[in-house]
Amino acid sequence: MRFKLSLIAAGVLAAASVVTTTAQAAPAFADVIVMMDESGSMAGEQVWIASQIPTLNAGLVAEGVGVGGTNKFGLIGFGYSAAGAPNDLRGFDVATGGGATNNSPGTFGTAANFSASAGNLIASGGFEDGYAAINLANSLAGRVGAARNYILVTDEDRDVGTGVPGYEGILASMTRTNTLLNAVVNSSFFCDNTSALGVARGPGSSLVSFVADGLGGFSKCTGTTTLGTGFGSTVADYVNLALDTGGAAWNLNFLRSGGLLADSFTAAFIDVKIEEITTQPEPVSLPGTLALLGVGLAGLGAVRRKQANAV
Predict the structure, then answer these.
(1) Under CATH, to which class is 12-310 assigned?
(2) Which residues, at least 6 apart from 155, have a Cβ–Cβ distance to it below 8 Å?
(3) What is the pTM for the complete model shown?
(4) pLDDT in tens, 278-300
(5) Contact 136, 89 (CB under 8 A)
(6) In sequence order, which residues have a C-beta less than 8 Å from that of residue 302 and are 6 or more positions away?
(7) CA pair distance 250, 126, nearest whole angstrom
């Protein structure tokens, strides 16, 4: 795989989205699509996601979502080649637990079949455009009434593929279908200077972060949440996108640490996924995250006042 040298400067504060949300009734079932980087460094994460989708499904069923095996899961691999889009996209036949077809969105299947299909993921490529994977996932038709949720896992920023929509186009496509994104990426987050496992969109326009408790669990941090460094343009590409959809972003380096830190990461990830799928906040207006360098909470207040005055 390639190694990039640039890093986003530390100290980026994720500002309020202009989107407002209202809670919906819990959906009867969910359509979840995983977009997995298939480049050379991702073998560990591929094994992890194969094991965690059944755990996620069991947690959803315990909350009354997908009772009777009605939750469905899809899988798209990206980055397996060095050639660029569209040749780096593979959709998996999850309906049968089978392998992938180039440039196909694949099929939905059960959690168990997802794990079987994920066993066919590879880790050998180097052209990684997560937006191309999202764009392909959008063509995998979901079901009326399903909670639609994406999980994107990569340790690099975008390699821009040919003919792939940019940030605003991808965001608009997900907003139209009320699709939430969780991005598991190579980026750091902090709560009052404590390194956080991840960050999610909280009530209204707030952010909430999650910190390891040293015992394999986690706690929510109620202090000031900030975004730190990300690999290349990861914050701009994926972290902001996840938060703008009402989803969450996660620091995969905790997963790679192993031991109790990895346990904490997984516990927080699954808990947040279950909560966001069962509550399904409904977007009211198209969001637009403001990434503010070196601006504190006073800056957030100024943004809100400006929005209020414009109404």
Answers:
(1) alpha beta
(2) 37, 39, 41, 42, 45, 185, 186, 231, 252
(3) 0.83
(4) 986 554 344 444 333 333 333 33
(5) yes
(6) none
(7) 22
